[in-house]
Each structure stands twice: as C-alpha cells, then as structure tokens.
User: Fold this.
Amino acid sequence: MNVLERVLDFASEAQLDRKSCLVTFGGGVMTDLGGLAASLFKRGIDVVHAPTTLLSQVDASVGGKTAINLAAGKNLAGTFHQPRAVFCDTDTLTTLTDADWLSGLGEIVKTAWIGGIESLNLLEESAAQLTAKDAGTVASLVAECIWIKARVVAEDPREQGARRALNLGHTFAHAIEKAAGYGTLPHGVAVACGLGLAFALSDEIGHLANATDRERVERLLAALGLPRTLAELRERFDVTLRADELLPAFAHDKKGSVGKPEFVLPTRPGELELAVRLEDGVLAAFLAKR
Ligand SMILES: NC(=O)c1ccc[n+]([C@@H]2O[C@H](COP(=O)([O-])OP(=O)(O)OC[C@H]3O[C@@H](n4cnc5c(N)ncnc54)[C@H](O)[C@@H]3O)[C@@H](O)[C@H]2O)c1
Assistant:
C-alpha cells in the first residue's frame, strides 16, 4: 500500500495527465503494482507492460489483473485494467536467478494443461530444450502461453466463469505462500506444488478422468525440476509447512467466500471443474498425507 502511494505521488509530481501512459518494466510484482497505479491515477490512464521475468511474460502481464497484498492475504486489493500492449523480450530472461526461472516454469505447466492436449504434447516434447534454456524454444513457448491466456481472458475478462480455469493450482499455492510467509517461495514454485496437489486431489476424489494424466503432469513437473508435493517443497526450499499451519491459510482465499476455499480441479486436458468445495476434514486428511 505504501509503495502504491509512492507510485501515485510520483505520477502526480511528474504531471502525468489522462492521456499519459505508464510503462512497467520488471516482474509480476511490477506489472501488478504498475497496472493498479495506472487504473487508479486520475481514474485510469493507459498502461503498457514490458515484463522481464518468465512468469510475468507467460502470465502476469497478460489479462489485466492488478493487485497488491493486504495483511489478510495475497492480492486482496486490485482492479481489472487491461494493458494497451505487452512487449516480451525473451533476451531479458538470461539474467534470472534459478529460482525465478523455475517459478515461470510452474505457470507454463498450468497454461499447457489449460491449452489442451496439443499444448501439453508440445511442452512434453520441448521440456529438455526448455530446461536447457534454448532461446528459440523459450520464445515459442512464451508466445504459446500468451495466446492460451489471451484466449481464455477474451472469453471472460472479469472472471465470472471460464477465466477461473487460470486459477488451477492457485488455491493451494496462495495458502502455501501465506503459510510460508510472502517472499519465502517464488510464486510459480508454489503454483507447481499447487498443481501437483490439485492433480492428486482431483484423482483421489474422482474428478480426473484418467489417472495417467496425473502421472503425466507429475512427470512433466519433475522433468522441469519443479516440486510436486509438500514433502518435496520442504526438502528443496527450506520451508516447514505442516498441514495444521497450512489449513488456516485457506480461510481467506479470495476465490471462495470467507472460510470456504474453492478449488479448480483438472478433469481432462483443457477441461476443468471451476469451483469444487471440500469439507474441512477432507482437506485436512488430504494435506496430512503430503
Ligand atoms: N496479474 C496476474 O495475472 C498475475 C499472474 C501471475 C502472477 N502474478 C503475480 O506476479 C508476482 C510474481 O511475479 P515474478 O515471479 O515476476 O516476481 P517478481 O516481480 O518479484 O520478480 C522476481 C525477481 O526477479 C527480479 N527480476 C525481474 N526481471 C529480472 C531479470 N530480467 N533478470 C534478473 N532479475 C530480474 C525482480 O527484481 C525480483 O527480485 C506475484 O506477486 C504474483 O501474484 C500476477
């Protein structure tokens, strides 16, 4: 909130007017914050994003969601404000840390599932080149992810229905990030673990049509070096995350009403159930095994 105020004060001191355009340059925190500032300044000025992390190129910069965190939870204050344009220069990605690189890969796996069987096949075929950071592969997968996300957002810009698919893995991820402490884990790494948990949950409660799809996504996450379970997250990222610490963190998830989290669960490639609610006992028992 304080940083948002500083950005707005800066816009005012720089004498931006209603025809001005704010340009963001940086990761998803920057596109979320800059997008929010642009949507508020003088009741809304244009914004253009130049995202420089893998995660912000494939996900955060596209779709117009803006946000800052509140003490009660992540991304709880925000607006919808579509950028005029998004420019992705994949050369900027060469300086990312390994953790920020991994973070982007988590959102790529999510997007490939939403894109359907062909996107999933493409990612499986490209996994080795992607891990090797082959420039051509990175550029084409960034483009593929943007098209998939743009298609979903165009159908449902304000998340009344179909757009909720993009929250696959995120009910788990937001609870993990909150329980671990914001900033402890890269967002997309939490999303990767959230995806692993969403596929396991969907399989165990009978929503996933083919158990082989769970194995397929788990294999893909592993091939890309991403965690699939809480145990792997604890082992590799130095977080404790006991089930009894995690459960209260689901209470304020903004996708459900207070106290009742909603999960987006996979059924078949490209298809999802958008609002699955569980009894607390089911979630607790599921988490305890992970
Ligand atoms: N609005 C949306 O639709 C949406 C979608 C997904 C994620 N998000 C949000 O995005 C945020 C995560 O984004 P992120 O992973 O980009 O995090 P981030 O913005 O914190 O960037 C990660 C780190 O990378 C550094 N960095 C940026 N570009 C770099 C470069 N080219 N080389 C080296 N370092 C670089 C940053 O300074 C930062 O330390 C979360 O807050 C998440 O909630 C928003």
Notes: The two ends are 35 Å apart (CA to CA). Residues 135-155 form the longest helix (21 residues). The longest strand covers residues 262-268.
